[in-house]
Design goal:
Elements lengths: L4 E7 L4 E4 L7 E2 L18 E6 L7 E5 L3 E5 L7 E3 L8 E6 L7 E5 L3 E4 L7 E3 L14 E6 L7 E5 L3 E5 L7 E2 L14 E4 L6 E5 L2 E5 L7 E3 L6 E7 L7 E6 L7 E6 L7 E2 L10 E5 L8 E5 L4 E4 L7 E2 L7 E8 L1
Amino acid sequence: MDKNYTIFIGTIGNGLRCSRDGGETWQGTPSDQPLPDSGVGGLEGNVRALAVYPDDPHRILAGSDRMGIYRSDDNGASWRLLKSPMEGLEIWSIDVDPINSDNIYVGTRPKGFRSRDGGQTWEKMDISVDEGAPVWPPRTTKITVDPRDHRTIWASAEVDGVHKSTDGGDTWARQSKIGPSQFYDDVHCMAINGDDSRVYASTPFGIATSLDDGASWDIHEFPEISYCRGVIIKQDDPDTLFLGNGNGIPGETGAIRRTRDGGKSWEPVPLPVEPNSVVYWLGTHRDVSDTIVGATIHGYIYVSEDGGEDWEKLELEFGHIRGVAVTPN
């Protein structure tokens, strides 16, 4: 049966791969660079960050540790390397302004960059990370534009909490601490409910929720495996979220958890094969909102085509996965 979606998988050591048939076959992602760097990420490249444009589901950005930022305008059939100051930096997160797609935000190690002209020029953002953080320089693990106000930008940092800008990235402020020890502020991912005031942040101790824009947090811990990574909101149901977690990083086991009530209660989804490490990242898209893709850091890929009720583990296993994106075909 023809599939109506494309899966993009960012790997460590194998660049960016994509499948247009539900994971049965996989292709490389050719770029405008000459050999040996002709694929996205370059030879044996690392791709950790992916973002789909909110106003064009076939325009995609990919971040490579060595090469920098790539863009595709044809759903991944071809890619162009954008000139940027991020060549040689670790790129951990990318987001595009849903109101003005010329505004692009990138989280690096440390801090990040902003473009106001679609990636033609870039300027460094002084995200309010602490030079005394336990891991220095910290990674900006997630950067996201607030769907309620596109001038508000959120950033999470490795063992340095949640940071927010209310002026489009000009100035930044650190938000309140999430838990009783500093490692509760090892925030790995964020998601924002555009229909109300809920802001979510994943941590090694569970999933934290703020109802007051980061002024305070409540944390939901899970028995046995509480180390949480990627979190996404189902695009047609803001009360339903999916969360990847495990028993550590990279861990030996993991789970995909789901809430249907905005984070008040969570349940593991029924996976056909136990994950071999933490479920690191998840992807979906509003145009194919019942397709959910999750991946473990050690290469398992799970796909649901019915909104998270039933799941399949794909046959191909990658060596090391760090990024996932889904687009409509």
